[in-house]
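Feature request disguised as a bug report, sorry. It would help if multi-protein outputs had a clear separator. Right now it looks like this:
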Amino acid sequence: MNPKINLFVLVLSGLIFFGCQEESGPKPLPDANYPTTYKPLSQADWDTQNDKFQKINIYEGLILNEYGFAEGEIPLTNVDSITKDLVTNKIDTLVSMYHEFLGIPEEMTFDYENQIQILASNSIPRATKVGIRSFYEGMENAKEKGYFEDFMRDIRYKFYLTENQFDEKILDGVEISFDFDINKSSIKIQGNWVSKIVVPKDKIYSEGDALGIAYREILKQTGRDIWESKENYSSYSLLLKIKNDNQFEIRDCWIVYTVEIPYAGYTIAVYIDTQTGEVVKYFDSL
């Protein structure tokens, strides 16, 4: 082949290759109300919300935080073990009484035995949340089979009530935790649900755009050029709660993720805002 033609082909191939890693053309601006932002309340608004809260509050250790959500530590008395019934009944009572100040709709009903979760630190390959029913069934099975101590290793009785979905979209990072502590005779309550989210109708940055953005972010973070293995990548979209200075935001994101880079079990996930193209979260772990 003519050397000039050969050089032309190489340059053209390079342009096509790198072009695939760039977003196409200028993008429109997101909705003016996007992303949904929860900021600390003004003093006047907090006072109004706190007046309502104090009319129903029965625990001195439970207060309203700066966003107007209930949090704090309440007594756990006359308890010598953390049973499934104890947890479900306590959480049911707290949600029934404080739902407005936890961000939970009044009409919301729960299948607590399946919806309450606990972090199982001995899960394989890494700690994951499991349903409370499955956890206690596993505990009984461990007693029968003789590996109870291994099963309970590093278990903390911290339970989660997660808001999984909003407007038929997966919602990540929005949950309330209930930390049961026999030694301190208390339950620590943190977190909240959210009642308003701007859900974009269209994605300004496509799935293909997200792949190129993820490629460049992984290259920046790890120094690894993995474009040739892009077919091993997977992606999906969800709503993500992130903390940004003293406020938190709900963003519509693509997640581009892969495993086995550079070895089995190694996971990378890049969260990319579908409206702005920003990398809002980068996860890199075994």
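(second protein starts here, but nothing in the output says so)
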Amino acid sequence: MKQWYRIYKPELGETLRLSIPIVIAQLGVVLMGVTDNLFVGRLLGAVPLAGAGLSVSLAFLVSSIGVGGLAVTAALVSQARGRRDAAEINQLFRAGLQVALLLGLVLGLVGAGFAYFFDLFGQVPEVTQIGRNFMLILSLSNLPLFLFIAARQLCDGLSYPRVAMSITLSALVLNALFNYLLITGAGPFPEMGVYGSALATLLSRGFMAAAIILYIRRSPKFQPYFQPAFRLLRVRNQVVRILKVGLPGGFTFFFEVATFSLAAMMAGWLGADQLAAHQIAINMASTTYMMATGISAAGAIRVGNALGRSSQTAVRRAGVAALWLVTAFMGLAAVIFLTANDWLVSWYIRDNPEVAALAASLVIMGGFFQLSDGVQVVGIGVLRGLSDVNVPTVITLFAYWIVGLPMSYILGFWLHLNVAGIWIGLLAGLTMAAILLPIRFFQLLRKLKPDAIEETIYHP
């Protein structure tokens, strides 16, 4: 054990160093939606909150394809860094921005389609009207969000994750300020009500995109990747490469997000109390999941860098270190969920003992799937570092939509296990993915040879 720790200690330290700023940055993006809901709910009431909240959830579902698709670029940048290819890094940066523009346009139109057909969600007329207009503004804000994520891949891939972290935290404060000013019409600002919250998100995301691109272009640490000669290099092949590798990764993220959205819908079919308990427990699980995605992103970067250096040993160490790190973190989260479930639920609800008791039981089940959730998301990350995305997409589709969701429905409704049955199905799907994804990683690892790495990875 001591020998193992001595070998893996540097890799564990580097993965952790990369993970923490990425976790904070990702939580900051998610917290923008939470901030919108908090301001709308406290300042305007239940109906505007219902319309805004549903729009935020739908917008996140649509944008998940772009967010997951662009995330692969950091691993590609890290691979090029391992090969010390500054020209390719420049091409990947410019190609990533072009892909972001494309995805922003396409998914923006998809979001607009959701807004146009908002009445199909069966909401009351007031919620439908608010939700439709709110969704249109959020769809427009996808463009600057994707530009920020694309530019961020350069920073993360070159192991400068604190750049995106700092900008995201600044934007989170800016978003809260704009929410207050535009909702209430304080000072010289117009009173826009609920739509002021959506505009606050648009302005904050615009700030994020402009800030990170300006920083990259002006910071001395990035200048080696922007030599004048690089401007003449075409990026068409890199655009195709990012789309080819990134879109399956985007749909992998979409399948998982959609699974939990559909699980919430099924919980709502059982009743308001069941849905409330589900939302409390899933909110806790989502928080730890977001932290695990930081380790996943760091694992992808470290594996990609090792691949670029043509080192099978380094690839193994990077992948194993990420898996062990997430196992330790999610193991700790599992212990907290299993032993402090009642206390955790008390932070959300106090005046409804039936909902509190049901939520506490679901938190215990959430404790059991913490390890599976962490391992599967890191499994996706380390495979992304190897540019292996097609098979993981099939694995997640099978695990979540063939195993998890049908089992949730059968156990919850046919066998009358209620919302607990839905969660057992989620546990089964996550566990299946947590088994198959690491197996895939170690299968590819055995095929890696220093003299044929590119052929092995891109033609598995």
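Even a blank line would do. Unrelated, but nice: The chain has two domains: 16-234, 247-460.
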